[in-house]
Design a protein that fits this description.
Blueprint lengths: L6 E4 L1 E5 L5 E7 L2 E6 L4 E5 L5 E6 L5 E7 L2 E6 L5 E5 L6 E6 L11 E4 L35 E6 L4 E6 L5 E6 L5 E7 L4 E6 L4 E5 L6 E8 L5 E4 L5 E5 L4 E5 L2
Parallel strand pairs: 1-18
Antiparallel strand pairs: 2-21, 3-4, 4-5, 5-6, 7-8, 8-9, 9-10, 11-12, 12-13, 13-14, 15-16, 16-17, 17-18, 19-20, 20-21
């Protein structure tokens, strides 16, 4: 995927991450949600690095992290690859979805998105009997389309999956030929998906419809794992090797 001329950007170290080894980042107005792959906790920190809250997750080797639809989403980079949905106020895990072909490639990064205009949720399957009709939670899920979508990096399979966030139904796939896809963010200005590749620190701005590379650049001086962008245009990088959060100014 690498082109001959790739511009380089340098990130500035901002602060140490809480926990032991961060592996997921998502920017929200309050600060940064991050997940730690060793203590398997998810933290909300402000933009100065102060911990505002944290909670444990069922995710193991917790990796990708995103927020949307009123939830915090944390990916488990183990087999079977699973994404867990959490209440951001209590930390309670309220649902889980196992990825299609979960044995292929694990999951390193996730990005929540609403359904875009023209995107249609998959057709709901035939309803079966509830597991426990007299108790809450008897239904397996609330049906496709009720909680938006997730973009999911699948490094071992060299692709990025687009799934329904409630059911896990596959909505689409785009190729990603670099070997270690990780964190990503969505650009609202042009509806592109920027995805980091950890081994060489390259970031690819992709057309989400077919995976066409629209731009490529490289971050030098650190190992790029988690990646997100805040509303002020800063790109935030989580380096798991240093357990440090870096930023690139707009």
């Amino acid at each position: 995927m690498t082109t001959a001329e790739v511009r380089t950007l340098t990130a500035r170290a901002m602060f140490a991450a809480p926990g032991q080894q961060l592996n997921g980042l998502e920017a929200v107005p309050e600060g940064l949600w991050l997940s730690d792959q060793r203590d398997n906790r998810t933290y909300l920190i402000d933009y100065a690095g102060t911990v505002l809250t944290s909670f444990p997750s069922p995710a193991r080797n917790a990796s990708g992290t995103s927020a949307g639809g009123g939830w915090v989403w944390v990916a488990s980079n183990t087999s079977p690859a699973t994404i867990f949905r959490h209440d951001p106020h209590t930390g309670h895990c309220t649902a889980a979805v196992t990825l299609p072909q979960s044995e292929q490639g694990g999951v390193h990064g996730i990005q929540w998105r609403p359904y875009e205009p023209g995107e249609r949720p998959p057709t709901a399957g035939e309803a079966g009997p509830e597991l426990h009709p007299s108790a809450p939670g008897g239904r397996p899920h609330d049906g496709p389309g009720t909680n938006g979508t997730l973009w999911v990096t699948r490094p071992g399979a060299l692709r990025i999956d687009h799934i329904d966030a409630e059911t896990g139904d596959l909505l689409g796939q785009i190729p990603f030929a670099a070997t270690r896809s990780h964190g990503m963010f969505w650009d609202e200005a042009d509806n592109t998906l920027s995805v980091a590749e950890t081994n060489h620190g390259h970031v690819y701005r992709l057309d989400p419809h077919d995976g066409t590379v629209r731009d490529e650049w490289r971050i030098v001086g650190l190992e790029v794992h988690a990646m997100t962008r805040s509303a002020d245009g800063r790109i935030w990088i989580g380096d798991a090797a240093q357990n440090t959060i870096f930023a690139i100014e707009p």
